Amino acid sequence: MTETRVPIPTLERLATYLRVLLDLNEGGVETISSQEMEHYSGISAAQFRKDLSYFGEFGKPGVGYSVPQLIECIERILHIDQEQPILLVGAGNLGAALVGYPNFRAHRFRIAAVFDNNFVKIGRPFGELVIEDIARLKEVNAQIGAKLAIIAVPASAAQTVADMLVEAGITGILNFAPTVLKVPPHVFVRNVSFLQELAVLSYHVAEGTEIAQPTGGHRDCAI
User: Fold this and answer.
1) Which domain holds residue 12?
2) 127-149 pLDDT, tens per residue?
3) Fewer beta carbons below 10 Å: N end or C end of the chain?
4) 132-151: buried (b, 16+ CB within 10 Å) or exposed (e) per residue?
């Protein structure tokens, strides 16, 4: 958390606003109103203004918000105004997709090193990188100085990897493994669960179908 205790959903929405602003800036748009942000982002104009209010006063009445200036401010708030190196652990299919993801650089994130414990993979090219032995994680990061890492390994190995990352100085982890990690209080973890998201989508799709074609409401679950 930040010193001002900014709610996590606000930070998530800031990232959404930034994506919209970058697209608008690329299209040559110089100013935007809160109503226009609602149109582009799907987030209400009132919520947009409230989110920005955590960090000061932005925009001018009757003029709106300067797109380039707001990009600069949000990048500074999120501490992505300078390049952020990232360690990736797991040189499998998911790791390959992450290394090839083009939008990392647009937001000043850079996967600086990739690690695996499979001796068949170690030393082989992986995108523009070479797969490092995970045993050298702390040594390699002493040179890179990364604070962020991505875990893309099976659940059975995730906690061991997390422990190694913390020991190497990592304080922010994006976890793709389907397991809950135990980390010290100063380390922040964000979990990405495809199955969880699909389950939620499945529920909403089913609920939408029931609303369109009523079936008598929910059935009680016997436990």
Assistant:
1) 8-77
2) 999 999 999 999 999 999 999 99
3) C
4) bbbeebeebbeeeebbbbbb
